[in-house]
Amino acid sequence: MIIKIPKNILNELINYIYINKPNEAVCFLLGFIKEDTYIVNELVKVKNAANSPAEFYVEPDELLSIYKRAEEKGLDIVAIVHSHHGLPLPSTIDIKYMKLNPYVWIIISITDLKMQAFVLNEEKVEPVKIVIT
Ligand SMILES: [Zn+2]
């Protein structure tokens, strides 16, 4: 599985992570899914309602507006991105929410901007290759 992210969207994403420091930042990526390739073409910045450096929470109203925006544009929600202070690996809580939100989960380390993507496949966390386009 591959996720393709345009360079300008990645730059905007990293900028948003800096703006939210020290709190975790959260964004959604909209685009298309073609077989095993996820193609990103839009970034949706989201407010971390938890206001925390250790977790994130998205208000249901905001989530709903993302669904509407995707539907209006004929796009899919491809991925959810959030930042971590530690390693870019899903936490136990992340894995719990991966079950409820079956998108690609991208985690970016606030410390060194290392980035990894995952999907949950039958209870197993599997890596997704990130390609910057
Ligand atoms: Zn997390």
Give an account of the 3D structure:
By secondary structure, this protein is α/β, with parallel strands linked by helices. The protein is built from three helices and seven strands; from the N terminus they run E-H-E-E-H-E-H-E-E-E. Helices cover 28% and strands 41% of the residues. Strands 1-3-2-4-5-6-7 form a seven-stranded mixed barrel. Strand 5 and strand 6 (115-121) form a beta hairpin. The chain is globular, with a radius of gyration of 14 Å. The two termini are 16 Å apart.
Helix-strand layout with pairing:
Elements: E1 2-5, H1 7-20, E2 26-34, E3 37-46, H2 60-73, E4 76-84, H3 92-100, E5 104-109, E6 115-121, E7 124-132
Parallel strand pairs: 1-3, 1-7, 4-5
Antiparallel strand pairs: 2-3, 2-4, 5-6, 6-7
Bound molecules: zinc ion.
User: How many domains make up the coordinates?
Assistant: 1
In DSSP terms (H or I, runs of 4 or more residues), the helix count works out at: 3
Q: Describe the global form.
A: globular
Strand-and-helix sequence, N→C?
EHEEHEHEEE
Could you state the CATH homologous superfamily? Answer: Cytidine Deaminase, domain 2
CATH architecture: 3-Layer(aba) Sandwich
Bound molecules: zinc ion
List the uncertain runs.
Answer: none
How many distinct beta strands? 7
Which CATH class? Alpha Beta
- How far do the termini sit from each other? 16 Å
